[in-house]
Amino acid sequence: MDRMQHRASSHTRSARDATSWWFTARGREVVLVVATLLLVASLARLGYLLAPSAVERALIRTVAQATGSVLTVGEVRVDPMRLGIVLDDVQLADADSGQVLTVQRVEYRLRGRSLLGARRVVDGLALERPQMTLTAAGQTGTAPGASLPMRLLSALIDSESFQIERLSIADGEIRLHHDAEGIAHVRELTGIALTLGSLDSGVAAAPAPYHLEIDEAYGVRLTLQGEVQLRAATVGAPAVQVLPSRGEVSGLRLPVLPGVLLIAPVVEIDALVGTLDPPDARSEVAARVHIAQALLREGDGAELSLSQLEGAIDLDTNAQGGTELQLKLQGRSAIADRLELSGRYLSADTLPTVALTLRDVAGEPLSQMIEAVLGRRLDAGRATIGLQADSDAQGRLSKAVLEVVASDLDFAPETPAASPEPGVDVALLLALLEDTRGQISLTIPVETTAATTMSLAVTQALRRYAFESVGSPVAALGRSLALPAPPSTVVRFEPGAAALTQAATEALSELAGALLLRPRLSVAVPVNIDPQLDRDALAHQQIELHVTLATAGAEFRARPRPVDFASPRAQDVLDEFAGERLPATELAAIAAQYGRTGDSRARAPYYRAVFAALVDSEPIERGALERIGRFRARSIADALTGLGLSPTIVELGENVTAVSSSSGHATVPVELDLRANSRQQN
Q1: pTM for this one?
Q2: How confident is the model at residue 69 (pLDDT cuts 50, 70, 90)?
Q3: Closest CA to 410 of 435, 438, 432
Q4: What does the alpha-carbon distance between residue 150 and residue 322 come to, in Å, rounded to a whole number?
Q5: Do 120 and 110 contact (CB within 8 A), yes or no?
Q6: How far apart are CA 138 and CA 117, in angstroms?
Q7: Distance between CA 273 and CA 568 in Å, rounded?
Q8: Measuring CA to CA, which residue among 319, 371, 373, 316 is closest to residue 346?
Q9: Integer angstrom CA distances of residue 233 from 203, 240, 277, 301
Q10: Pairing of strands 336-346, 323-333
Q11: Average model confidence (pLDDT) across the chain
Q12: DSSP characters over 392-405
């Protein structure tokens, strides 16, 4: 009995001690810890199991409202302990533009202290292996703008409910798909790494370092290092500004002319700056570049080595989807002391235009060029060669213009084997083109076909110009001087006369002005007569003179005057001459046709016919005709020298040439011949 009472009292005392322990300080701590652990375990269970679906629904709804795009997520993991969210296999698609943004993993970590405020602070938003796909179709090749990622970035920055302290991108990739005329083109840009800090609405982000490596499918690699700054815009998306940066491009293959590539192993980029301003849908990128060594290669054939190229590259886009790339480089080449290359490429209505200029080409390179065109080698000379070409929408040459400025050209002596195609008079060609300073300036259109290379097209254009110039020297002279019309080299004389008409004087004045600008040219003046027209004219003059002298009386008349066939005195003189020089049968035939009755005025037709018969029967010596031809040549030579030409370049012909006037012209033509003159004017 006592033992049982003892046990009961022991149990009562233990229970009382235990109850009192719960109310001690240590007991309360243990209880709180246990409760907290149970609560955390419950929250963790809820976070890991229930929160992902809620987060996914919220994200899809928020992104759709902010960007108008469709978001899909492969898996969502929530870490309630670290206030972090991890999204795997994220895809953001824009049905209107065809842009697709995929991210292998997105990590999002919230700052705990911000839970108590009205605005949440995101310590870090990390994108792992994001991939942006841009798709464009059509012949213009217009690349779509990056509107989708910029709208997403704008939504992140302009949000009133949270701010991002740090945004990082690792191993980014951009794929550009372009489908033109059923031909798909794909370019892949990979290795993009970027870190931005302090992204807050209304506040410019502090400059953040970035590292960008891009590998294209065509072997081009771009590496950039520098700083980038994000400026929040008051309306719309933020503006991104790339601060002065440095980098390089390796394996560059840039089409500068149809079928011609600029190939550079390394392009050094210095002070690259750029701005992407989505509110205006405009972006600008500019960079100074340096290329130590490069090649201009035409297909698998000709190559031109380049060195020490310096210049700038500018890239602009506008709201209409146009993309303009401007390239300006200067350097040296294997054939020129100085090379200039500029290009303007646009993806909108304007077609690409490229200009290539080789300055101070001399020596063996210039001699080889000239030999390929004319079959003659140079002993000396210098030239600047420029080519401007326009391409069509398919990248084919649509128009090209060749400009050549040469000076002090001196050809080597011609050998029998040096001229494969006879007919190119090099001396005459130079005389037609060289000005008073010893320079030659040409502007020649270049025609090409799908099967013609650029170098062959240029050679053919130069050869065609040379052959046309020596074949039609007068037209070439007018073309080289940019005259409205070629000067006339045909001087027309009245039959039987050697005096210049007013029209002939004006034509010679224009010709002399042109020849004064081409000191290597000379002009040959032939001795021309028209045996029929000149004989008839001289005979007419002699019969008129006989009648004039016979009817003059005491008055002295040294020159013939027109015969008055109604004058009785003139009729008496004509009867006397006709009786002495014409057969009676011919006079009877004339009288039968025209009649001799009536007064003197009625008999005028008869005497006019008698006068014509006397002209036909008048003997004119060949020497008289030749003297008329020589007087004409001397009249032309005196006029040219009087206009400032040196007598040494005006060559008078020795032999008399019989010519016939063309149909519709009752004049005698004297056509001057342009020739090369080795002796220049003083």
Answers
A1: 0.70
A2: confident
A3: 438
A4: 18
A5: yes
A6: 51
A7: 105
A8: 316
A9: 9, 10, 9, 52
A10: antiparallel
A11: 78
A12: -TTS-EEEEEEEEE
Q: Which residues contact 626 (CB under 8 A, 6 or more apart)?
A: 527, 529, 656
Q: Please list the residues that pair with 288 across neighbouring strands.
A: 270, 312
Gap between the Cα atoms of 444 and 206, Å rounded: 55
Q: How many C-alpha atoms does 208 have within 13 Å on its Cβ side? A: 22
Place of tokens 């209107």: 96
Q: What is the CA radius of gyration of the chain?
A: 49
The pLDDT assigned to 530 comes to 93
Distance separating alpha carbons of residues 148 and 87, to the nearest angstrom: 19
Element at 640 (helix H, strand E): helix 622-642
CA distance 4 to 8: 6
Query: What are the structure tokens assigned to 137, written together?
Result: 């179709």
Contact 123, 136 (CB under 8 A): no
Q: What distance in Å separates the CA atoms of residue 91 and residue 87, rounded to the nearest whole number?
A: 10
DSSP per residue, 188-241: EEEEEEEEEEEEBTTBPPPPEEEEEEEE-TTS-EEEEEEEEEEE--SSSS-EEE
Q: How far apart are CA 354 and CA 570, in angstroms?
A: 81
CB 258 within 8 A of CB 397: yes
Closest CA to 406 of 373, 436, 438: 438
Mean pLDDT computed over 307-315:
89
What does the pLDDT look like over 363-416, one tens digit per residue?
888 888 888 888 888 888 899 999 888 876 666 667 788 889 988 888 877 654
Secondary structure of 489-526 as H, E, C letters: CEEEECCCCCCCCHHHHHHHHHHHHHHHCCCCEEEEEE
Q: Is the pLDDT of residue 650 over 90?
A: yes
Length of the chain: 682
Q: Which helix (H) or strand (E) holds 363?
A: helix 363-374
Residue holding tokens 């020089």? 581
Contact partners, residue 412, CB within 8 Å, separation at least 6: 376, 377, 378, 379
Looking at per-residue pLDDT, the higher value among 602 and 178 belongs to 602
Q: Which residue has the tokens 């502090």?
A: 206
Q: Among all chains, which residue has been given the structure tokens 């004064």?
A: 516
Show the CA angle centred on residue 653, arms to residues 648 and 658, nearest 5°. 155
- Please name which of 165, 273, 176, 184 lies closest in space to residue 224, comparing C-alpha atoms: 273
Nearest alpha carbon to residue 563 among 579, 584, 542: 542
Amino acid letter, 268: E
Query: Rounded to whole angstroms, how far apart are CA atoms 60 and 74?
Result: 12
CB environment 345-371: b (16+ within 10 A), e (fewer) = bbbeeeebebbbbbbebbeebbbebbe
Q: How far is CA 339 from CA 197, 254, 363, in A?
A: 44, 17, 16
523, amino acid identity = V
Contact 227, 209 (CB under 8 A): yes
Give the mean model confidence (pLDDT) for residues 275-289: 76
Interatomic CA distance for residues 328 and 343, integer angstroms: 7
Greatest pairwise CA separation for the chain in angstroms: 204
CA distance 163 to 632: 99
**Using an 8 Å Cβ cutoff, are 636 and 498 in contact?**
no
